[in-house]
Design goal:
By secondary structure, the chain is mainly α. The chain contains five helices and no strands.
Length: about 130
């Protein structure tokens, strides 16, 4: 998935590369709905990175934290990313999207399930 070149600095490029590299690694270990969810989360994160490149330091930090959580969240039992970890990343990414005024980027669906919305789960944490 290509990202339009709208970045405004090396920090933005680094975050997008981290997301892209992680999704590439996930493709080797995930499939079906779990992989689709990971791909949608990555797309959301890329857009948040680009759209907050000129935002406040606090907003950029929130996006950076979401990227790092998605990229670094791993289980040690042989699977690169467990379904539980993917659901936790989804909640965090969705919370960031809501808090940054981008409900259009909320990623619906749960690992292993088709459809459904994560929005009520996120709203409950605000």
């Amino acid at each position: 998935m290509a990202v339009e070149e709208r970045s405004s600095g090396p920090g933005t490029d680094v975050l997008i590369r981290k997301v892209d590299s992680h999704v590439t690694a996930l493709r080797a270990g995930l499939q079906g709905p779990d992989l689709e969810l990971a791909e949608r989360l990555a797309s959301c994160l890329r857009e948040l990175v680009v759209s907050t490149a000129q935002a406040s330091a606090a907003d950029r930090a929130q996006v950076r934290a979401a990227v790092h959580y998605f990229v670094l969240r791993r289980e040690s039992r042989g699977r690169l990313l467990s379904v539980r970890s993917l659901a936790a990343a989804q909640r965090l990414v969705n919370r960031a999207a809501f808090q940054l005024g981008r409900p259009d980027l909320v990623v619906d669906g749960r690992p292993g399930r088709a459809g459904g919305s994560a929005a009520p789960d996120v709203a409950a944490h605000n």
